[in-house]
Structures are given as C-alpha cells and as structure tokens.
Amino acid sequence: MPILALPKDTVRAIGSSQVLTDPASVVKELIDNALDARATSIFVEIAANALDLIQVKDNGYGIAPEDRQFVCRRSYTSKINDLDDLANLGGRYLGFRGEALASLAEMSENLFVYTRIDGDATAASLKVSRLGEVEKEEPMSHPVGTTVRVNNFLKFLPVRRQASLKDANKLLNEVKKRLQAYSMARPSVRFSLKILKAKNEKGNWTYAPKPNASITDAATKMFDLAAVCHIGQFISVDSRPVSSSKGTIKQIFTLFKSYLRSSLTPVCEKIKDPFLFLNIICPARSYDANIEPSKNDVLFINPTLILKTIETAFESVYGKLQTGASPKSKHLDEISKPQVFDIMLARKPQRDAQMKMCHCNLEHPLM
Prior knowledge:
The chain is an alpha+beta fold. The protein has helices at about 10-20, 25-35, 85, 100-105, 160-165, 170-185, 215-220, 245-265, 305-320, and strands at about 40-45, 55-60, 110-115, 125-130, 135-140, 145-155, 190-195, 205, 235, 240, 275-280, 285-290, 300, 340-345, 355-365. Residues about 330-340 and about 350-365 have low confidence and may be disordered.
C-alpha cells in the first residue's frame, strides 16, 4: 500500500478521540474553560448513561460577540499567542490548545453554546457544526457566563460509545472525583453535579464554599475526615489538578505512602488510598504543562528539587523513615531559599489511634 495523506475528516476524528477519551474528560475540559473565564460557580449536568447529555454552565466572563465564530474552531485560543507564552502559562490558564471544543463538536451529534457578556441586553445561542463552525446564532435569555450543551457524545465512535455505556457508573464516579479535585484546588469556587434521569439523587453532589474558603474548609465540607485512609489524593500544580499516577507526582505519592506507613502501627500498614492534598506553587518557566493530551501531568525542569522539598514536609510530620521503608530523596539537607507550597495530609496522632489532618505552609525553592 502506498503512503498517502489521510482524509481531513479522518485526521479530525483521530485527533479528537485523543483529546476527549470519555465523558469525564469532556467535563474536565469544560471546567478548565469555565475557570479560565474566572467563573465562581460551575454547574455540571450529565445523563445517567453519561453520554446522552453533558452540560456545563458557568458564571464567568462569557464570550464576546466578535469571538463567537471562532470559539469551536480547532487551534483557536485566547490563552497564548506562541510557544513562549506556553512556557509562562503557569496557573493563569488551565486550557491553551484550542482543541477541546473543536473535538467535542466532531464527536457529538449536537453542540450548543449559550453565552452572554456583561453589558449585553441578550445572550446568544450558538449551534455548532461538526467542523466547529457556527451554523446558527439566535438571541436568547441567559445570565452572564457560558453554558456548553452536548447531545449524544461519542455517536460517531460506536466501539468507544458501547464501552462507555457499560462503564456509565464508573464514569459518573470519575466525574464526581474530578469535581472534588477542582474543589480542593480552587476552594473558593462553587461546584455542583446533577445526574439527569437517575433512579435516585444519590449521585448528585454540591460543594458550596463560604466566602474566602480555605483548603481546610473544602476538605472538611466534602469528606469524612475519620476515613482519611480511603479518601484518595488531590494534587495540583499552580491549582491545576494533576494525576497522582504519573511522573514526578507519582513519585511524590509513593514517598508519602512510605512516610505514612513508616509512622503507623502494623494494623494500619495496609492503607492503599490515603488522603493527601498538595498544591505546588511554581515560578514561571519551571515546568511544562503540555506533555500529554489530557493535561493530567506536568514535566518539571528540576524534579529532584521538588521531591527533596516535599520530603522535608513529610519528615517534619512523620519523622524519619524506619528501617525497611523506601529510600529517601538524596541530598535532603541542601534545601534553602524560600518558595511556597501548601500541603494537607493524614497525620499520626500523639495519643490516640485516629487519623487527623494537618495543614502546613513550607518555604523552599522549586528551581
């Protein structure tokens, strides 16, 4: 078979399915856009089968009339102008590629965007084609902000659609966990989740913060702190939630488990999913957020220093590792000069067997 260029529709379909792998990834990308628009309230509605309807509504800035024709076009973005901007992105914006909405249009039966900016008398309803073009724009009533509504996600990928339908409950749980991760990373933002046409309301979830809510407020509001051994990890870089199963972040979590288990009695040594919140605040140009389609991982310019810095926090809470525990990071004593990160973790108590929370601000360099 000769080497030939793929048809453009095939290229779009293959690329889109890498950007958006399942309904949870759709919700993640839309939340990123909402937070980039400085939303303080984000409402997610999703069908019980996770595919028929996905809707994310926010109270952010909205989309200006002159930008609406470009909002779902591939590689159109307001976040960066060139590669150098990407290096300086930090925590200012979570999205930057201009791929998510274009991919969503490609992979769904219908995509609608409802938006209004402050000062406009009416909002606009945009119907978007699979090519990312605005097919129809009509006036409508809508508060300041943006709503993205998706019908029949994965319609054109039957194998992936069937797999998602079989795992609907798992995917809905993943959506909820992602909302919890964002709530921990952005504790002052309101989040809610509603499962449409569900048998009951057990899947619905709301995080409603008080004014100027802290990380501790978010944790105590969302979780039963008596069960911190099984809550899981919530790790962020510049308030960007990332996976604890990849790269340097995975190493951090492995190190955390070593210190936690080293400090506990044999009865508690089998903890598999302990609670950890960590937000690493980084200087500009100290990491790359563009290393995979899902943006769930970052590449640090100096991961060794990150690990050494965070290990000082673990050692200050749990003490030195006991014999037989995992090895420490090298050159721990070389840490100096201030930079800040926030950490909240399960702590061994002094007089009882219950797990508790501690919240620390440590000052160390990340570069």
